[in-house]
Design goal:
Elements: H1 3-13, E1 53-58, E2 64-69, E3 78-83, E4 91-94, H2 98-132, E5 142-147, E6 153-163, E7 166-180, E8 183-193, E9 199-201, E10 204-205, E11 212-215, E12 220-223, E13 229-232
Antiparallel strand pairs: 1-2, 2-3, 3-4, 5-6, 5-12, 6-7, 7-8, 7-9, 8-13, 10-11, 11-12
């Protein structure tokens, strides 16, 4: 706008009502790039965004989506967002402007894409460790675990042999170190197995190979740390 035009506008503003004065044009908000996956993910059954929510925006990993209200519906711009296969929305907001809505949605989709991609990478690493990693167990190791409702029962097993990814375990005897209240103090006896058959197990890991365990019928076994084990006395159990 030239200086002459500005001067003419200032002269005209004297004859206008205060609320009708010519306003300077609002600065343009730079448009953010639309964060859209190359291929749209399929619709998830059970999601029911409002009928006038027509346009969708997807994260790069195709695991998060935002639905936008159409301009023809009138009212404030709105958006509703979902991630993964959830039917409950992560958020459902209204915004003052379309630019504000698009900016908020884009930032959320970018954050979700990074978060969900990191989760998938972590799960892939854990799966690779389970199937491709080597467990640390060796013959003679003592494994312990506990189970029970309203009482504690100890499981004490020893590893008799290993082969590849498989291990064979057998129940171990334990030494009673006395009682304390309603509990008995037990110490495993290495190499002294009970007269029960051994079982073949495949060790598993849940954190990329840092910790390994063996899954039993209703308990999990891990390496014994040398501490005393406390079990509910039989006369107090149920």
């Amino acid at each position: 706008m030239t200086a002459a035009e500005l001067s003419q506008q200032a002269d005209l503003s004297r004859y206008l009502r205060p609320w009708a004065k010519v306003q300077a044009p609002a600065p343009e908000i730079p448009a953010l790039p639309v964060f859209v996956a190359p291929v749209a993910p399929p619709e998830v059954p059970g999601r029911f965004p409002p009928g006038h929510y027509t346009r969708r925006m997807y994260s790069a990993c195709r695991r998060a989506v935002v639905y936008f209200s159409s301009a023809e519906a009138g009212g404030r711009p709105c958006a509703i967002a979902y991630r993964l296969k959830r039917t409950k929305a992560d958020w459902h907001h209204s915004f003052r402007t379309i630019e504000e809505r698009d900016r908020y949605s884009t930032v959320w989709l970018e954050e979700m894409s990074k978060k969900l991609t990191a989760q998938e990478d972590r799960k892939a690493a854990q799966k690779e460790a389970r199937h491709g990693g080597q467990h640390p167990f060796k013959v003679g190791d003592i494994l312990t675990g506990s189970w029970g409702y309203d009482q504690t029962n100890q499981e004490i097993w020893g590893i008799t042999r290993t082969k590849g990814k498989r291990v064979w375990i057998r129940p171990l005897a334990c030494r009673d170190e006395g009682s304390s209240g309603h509990s008995n103090c037990l110490i495993p006896v290495k190499g002294k197995y009970l007269d029960k058959p051994e079982q073949m197990k495949i060790p598993q890991t849940y954190n990329g190979g840092e910790s390994w365990y063996i899954k039993g019928e209703c308990f999990s076994l891990s390496l014994w740390k040398g501490n005393a084990l406390y079990e509910t006395d039989s006369q107090f159990g149920h």
